[in-house]
Amino acid sequence: xxxxxxxxxxxxxxxxxxxxxxxxxxxxxxxxxxxxxxxxxxxxxxxxxxxxxxxxxxxxxxxxxxxxxxxxxxxxxxxxxxxxxxxxxxxxxxxxxxxxxxxxxxxxxxxxxxxxxxxxxxxxxxxxxxxxxxxxxxxxxxxxxxxxxxxxxxxxxxxxxxxxxxxxxxxxxxxxxxxxxxxxxxxxxxxxxxxxxxxxxxxxxxxxxxxxxxxxxxxxxxxxxxxxxxxxxxxxxxxxxxxxxxxxxxxxxxxxxxxxxxxxxxxxxxxxxxxxxxxxxxxxxxxxxxxxxxxxxxxxxxxxxxxxxxxxxxxxxxxxxxxxxxxxxxxxxxxxxxxxxxxxxxxxxxxxxxxxxxxxxxxxxxxxxxxxxxxxxxxxxxxxxxxxxxxxxxxxxxxxxxxxxxxxxxxxxxxxxxxxxxxxxxxxxxxxxxxxxxxxxxxxxxxxxxxxxxxxxxxxxxxxxxxxxxxxxxxxxxxxxxxxxxxxxxxxxxxxxxxxxxxxxxxxxxxxxxxxxxxxxxxxxxxxxxxxxxxxxxxxxxxxxxxxxxxxxx
Length: 554
What we know:
It is built from 19 helices and 15 strands.
């Protein structure tokens, strides 16, 4: 439960601290005094969106901090799942910088807003006037039934199975669509694949074939020039080798006379050997050059096939053609093996659907089992709140699986005898909505372990004896929950064990919202003013004191 609340630099609040009672706390004050501002600040602790425009002093950061006593509440696993330190006192803090940047902390550990919402949803439940509108929503009505049935475990299991089913279903449908599309293209892809495969392409063959074709097409010219080159180098009558041989002989002679010319002689000798080897190699190459018209035709045909395929596939190399061939092979193979793959995906989808429906039926059974009790308790509580002829009927329809199960819940309501129950939005007035919502919160309180429940003017549209009974219901709920009720009714304000008064302080240069815990005498004055206006009579003051005395002594 909330043991301490700090609000600093938020809207009209410069600095506010309060230590709510563990039982029923009532908060009163004039319209616009700042009660809704307090609720907005608490909403930030619950993970609501932050806005730098809400800063009291725009140049300073806003801090909202809540200390919660969570001893006795089994939520340790939640902290473990989110890697948060657990202690019997949980400190939740939200900061908003002047730039608008927002940060959240749980026990001094920075957390995302999703984690903040998950943690604080186990610490507080805020009922605002917006919830009365939500009451007309089928999803909200379903949530009420699940809360009463305590379906948390069943709902978690169902949603896990639902996510698994959706993944398997999407995978199967994607494979079906992909296979259908590929089957349309199969014949063409198969033709292209076989066309490439039959060619048995080699990575470097195009360059080799083009080089060989060039040689064959110019064989006579190449052969003639190689022969001339060979003759220039080594001809029996007149050639470079003959002249170089004479050079070597002359150098051998002078070297015998002196060693001075031995290095020159050796270089000439090496050159003679190299030129003879070069001449032999040129001669061998010349002998290997042959004209082969049949081979030329074969190469040209092969290259034309390669060129045509490159044009068809808009590529320039054999390597790219081989890549395309591999990709086509995968597509063709996938189609040839698609029946087996589809069968496996279908089986996985059907197994996931079977598991999902088992979880859905378990959830539906649990919901159906509690509906008579909800109807009975709501009708009984509404009778206590001055609506003896009111009737709530909960209609259940079964449909396709959704995130929340296979059930659609509809609350049908009638406030008057002999009138058939209809959709809430069509038949319930503001006061009837308030009483119905109070009743629902009352019966759900025993089903939830929430430490703190906050009511924001849940008494809208009611007065008199009904307001007293609503106050009694809150007081009863406060025996097992911490209740904080923002109210305009003296009947409910008087029920609080602690009473806080919110007011505007205009004594400074800027209006500030403040809150103070009222003493007994201050409560008498406040309750009296709520009954009779700013100048209550003696009888009104006496009435206020009588309303408070039993509560003040408890």
